[in-house]
Amino acid sequence: MSVVNPMSHQTTTPSSHCPPQSRYQVLNVVNRGAYGVVYRAWDMEAGEIVAIKHELEGLSRSTLREIEILQSLPHHHSIVDLKKVTVDKRGQVLVVMEFLPNDLRRLIAARKEAFSATKLKIMMSQILTGVRFLHENSVMHRDLKPANILINEKDRLKICDFGLSRWTNGSGSYTPGMVTQWYRAPELLMGETKYTSAVDMWSVGCIMAELVLGRVLFPGKSEIQQLGYIHFFVGHALQAMLCNSTPLLSGSGVDLLLSLLALDPNHRITANEALRHPWFLEL
Asked: Where is each Protein kinase domain found (predicted)?
């Protein structure tokens, strides 16, 4: 969700403003933002832990968009589940989501050694499978980043936060100021309004590089600096940096990453093509 991340596992005492909904027993507040609160709760009917988003001033536009998109999509194992949209006893809307205890950003920050090549391939395969599903269903996520990739107890990665997502349309004209800056494609940084789902693939490339390097690939402090990083590193400088990384990417792995980070969106690899890349077949 766009206002607060319901999967942050912060332990705080439930406030007196917890939603009075008899089906759900609130366990703790996991996140609090300017527009609302996210609770970790026990669903007494389903017998499972859920995340409940309660917006204080009514549902924001981004939350309404997220609900619309998730309700329209069939269930998929790489996409977070929207379980229910309900109304509490005070007439306020509650958005009930699948609860996942971790996210990729925290996993990267907490790691003490580099991911193995096998682990890297598993994570990338799961991310790309989710992105392919979205693109096949005419959805651009537009904010893919490690914090928006959640992880369940079985290490399954799931894409969340569809507050900036859009259906692709015939005109292809959209707002350029989407995607968190570090993961924003160069065409968006240049103000392009006619773009495609290739912007998501650039973000996936940035995520893959971060998994390999253990740090943000392009940590620009402004859009101009972001473009400077991109134009300096994409190409030979990035290839040299990756060849010295741990775990060492094979030549095939470097090729996949450079294909995701192609400056020209028309030459950027698609999610379906990426999943069929030879790197995934290497032992």
From this structure: 24-280
